[in-house]
Design goal:
Strand order of the largest sheet: 1-2
Number of helices: 29
Number of strands: 2
Length: about 675
């Protein structure tokens, strides 16, 4: 029949199809032809970002039939990236009553699949409250929850949202998977608000055919859209495969420790600098955790795709081993942590999967005993964040354990904070980008000087508490002095415009304790670290006037106590107020200790009693009776200081000879 046009005989190119949907004049036959043209082109070449946005506008108009709308959405295969405006049109379509629910569900599924390809998140994130409103819809809730998980950041986790989700659980089902998954995402950022455990399963896969089409087009075009940051959205953990292989410890790590050239030949370490452009990473990128040469290549080559694969694998592996209900043996979990420690020590920096995924979620659950060495080593390279967030995420979980565990844990934590401070002050602390950019945590706009100041003030208070609770235990004293030594380098060694002195309580409990090594350590820090730092300070700088007075008070107090027989007493004409032993005279009299002002002298104090005994033995013959320490004549006291120097306590001699007259 010549007068009838069969639809198989009519064809339409992609430009005509796009114009057809833009014009809005919809007929069944033309719609089918346009969809066929779009489908062929999208599966082969993909669509430009502007074309996708235009087609979503047509879907949101409500003029296209339901089945045609669903098919059109399946044709929205991005060639490279997706504009945020496209997602805004999806969200606006959710509130249009004339659009069928099945179309809205398909729009949400498409948004979840292309979320990794968005050109940003700021505009979409600004509609977080709008998306949260659609949780009341039973049909849309599973997909809205998954999208919210992608967008969730710390500022989105608020009390009223948590209460809203908990109320929903009571109405629907106590184990509703989408809501439980969103609550778990909230718990990652605010563990103090929730006590829920991680759900057994998160969000399953969806629209597998469309997902495969998107991956194929992206791989064909060698998109750079996948090389995005992986910060606080946890998206890698929210979209696991439908059937995941059980992770069982050492089997997770690839056994190959070799690198290969492009033609498959194995290489040696000596070839590393000669053939960098020809090297290929192993097919199992996780083998780089065990192979030193692979780690070198991973960092030198700067392969963003390999970093991305490693980040995905780390988050998946850590989630299975530490956050699921699977029974993974302790040696296998310890082996994985050892590999992470090795990687962070090699990079001299943390990685996103460690700081923002593992430590953020595991520290609130940690008992302080399991894997203590590995956990504290991983915390060594924590990068600064706004201090209030850093305190809630990393400091408070350790602080709760700090107050309940033994002296060994307290000392280990103080040594850990000392290493954290050292890495903050290291010469490469300003490094931001480079070959590690895809794997390392991105720095927020953090005032590092203010962060360091608040961090030091916190640890100083922790030192006081630990010394009080553990009665000046030598292990705690050593850890506290190690941290104070690092603090003293802030200005003098690294020239960061910040000088922080230890609090009087810390100085008093280290200098006047029954541990001569602690006294020696504090004297060394004051004379070798703080004195040179203050000599470099501009004396006219008003910011350092008060802290200079504080240092002078420490020096005067120590000289009076250790050498000048004037502990607990300061001459009235002296301009500096004592900070270490400002004790009322009535209290001293009530103690009824004779010659209390001599109790802390370097040649009579109980702290030095063993050394005094040894010195007196060298100064008298066998026929002489043992002399009392107070009978050491003044002419011998300088010789006694030389005796201390010979026994590796030269810091006391240096301190006294620098700040007082020894022969007076």
């Amino acid at each position: 029949m010549a007068g009838i046009v069969m639809e198989d005989d009519v064809d339409m190119d992609v430009s005509e199809a796009l114009n057809y949907f833009d014009e809005g004049h919809v007929t069944a036959l033309q719609t089918k032809l346009a969809l066929n043209a779009l489908e062929r082109h999208a599966k082969e070449e993909g669509l430009e970002a502007g074309q996708i946005t235009s087609l979503l506008k047509a879907v949101g108009s409500g003029k296209i039939a339901t089945q045609a709308s669903v098919k059109l959405i399946r044709c929205l295969i991005p060639r490279e990236h997706v504009e945020q405006e496209a997602v805004l049109k999806v969200i606006s379509s959710l509130s249009v009553p004339t659009i069928p629910t099945s179309v809205k569900i398909m729009l949400l599924k498409w948004t979840i699949l292309v979320f990794e390809l968005l050109d940003g998140e700021d505009l979409v994130g600004s509609l977080y409250d709008v998306l949260f409103y659609f949780l009341d819809s039973d049909s849309l809730r599973p997909f809205v929850c998954q999208l919210l998980c992608f967008l969730t950041k710390r500022e989105h986790v608020m009390d009223f949202r948590v209460h809203k989700l908990l109320e929903m659980l009571k109405k629907v089902h106590v184990n509703d998977q989408p809501i439980c998954s969103l609550l778990w995402a909230y718990k990652v950022f605010r563990p103090d608000l929730l006590t829920r455990s991680r759900p057994k399963s998160l969000f399953g896969s969806m629209e597998n055919a469309l997902k495969r089409d998107i991956k194929r087009v992206q791989a064909k075009r060698k998109t750079v859209g996948l090389q995005r940051r992986f910060g606080t959205n946890l998206r890698a953990s929210w979209t696991p495969p439908s059937k995941r292989r059980r992770v069982t410890g050492r089997a997770v790590l690839a056994t190959s420790r070799s690198l290969t050239l492009g033609d498959g030949r194995a290489i040696s370490l000596s070839q590393l600098a000669e053939n960098l452009e020809n090297f290929e990473l192993p097919s199992q990128v996780s083998s780089s955790l065990d192979s030193p040469m692979a780690r070198h290549l991973l960092t030198v080559a700067g392969d963003g795709e390999a970093f991305l694969r490693l980040t995905f694998w780390l988050e998946h592996c850590l989630s299975e081993v530490f956050f699921s209900n699977s029974s993974v043996s302790s040696p296998d979990a310890e082996h994985i942590l050892d590999c992470l420690v090795s990687l962070t020590e090699f990079l001299q920096d943390t990685v996103d999967a460690v700081q923002h995924f593992f430590l953020c979620g595991y520290l609130p659950l940690w008992d302080g005993v399991s894997y203590r060495q590995q956990i504290l080593q991983l915390m060594t390279y924590l990068r600064p964040e706004p201090f209030d967030e850093f305190r809630e995420t990393y400091i408070l979980p350790l602080h709760r354990l700090f107050c309940s565990l033994d002296v060994s844990f307290k000392a280990d934590v103080l040594f850990c904070w000392q290493r954290v401070l050292h890495n903050l002050l290291a010469p490469n602390w300003k490094r931001r980008d480079g070959v590690f950019g895809c794997l390392l945590v991105e720095d927020d706009d953090v005032d590092r000087v203010d962060f360091i100041r608040r961090f030091v003030e916190y640890v100083d208070g922790v030192c006081i508490s630990a010394l009080q609770v553990e009665r000046n235990h030598p292990h705690i004293q050593s850890a506290a002095l190690s941290f104070i030594d690092a603090v003293s380098d802030i200005y003098g060694k690294y020239e960061i415009p910040l000088i922080i002195l230890p609090s009087p309580a810390v100085v008093c409990r280290t200098v006047f304790a029954l541990n001569v090594s602690a006294t020696t350590g504090m004297c060394r820090i004051l004379v070798d670290k703080y004195r040179p730092a203050f000599e470099k300070v501009d004396k006219m700088n008003i910011e350092y006037v008060e802290i200079t007075k504080q240092l002078n008070s420490y020096i005067v107090d120590l000289c009076y106590a250790l050498w000048r027989k004037s502990a607990f007493y300061i001459e009235e004409e002296f301009t500096f107020k004592t900070l270490l032993y400002d004790i009322p005279q009535q209290a001293l009299s009530a103690l009824q200790i004779p010659r209390v002002q001599d109790a802390l002298l370097v040649h009579t104090g109980i702290t030095f009693l063993g050394l005094i005994w040894d010195y007196l033995q060298t100064q008298q013959s066998d026929s002489q009776s043992m002399m009392h320490p107070r009978r050491i004549p003044k002419t011998h006291r300088v010789a006694y200081l030389n005796f201390l120097r010979e026994h590796n306590m030269e810091a006391i001699d240096d301190f006294l000879s620098t700040f007082t007259t020894l022969r007076s």
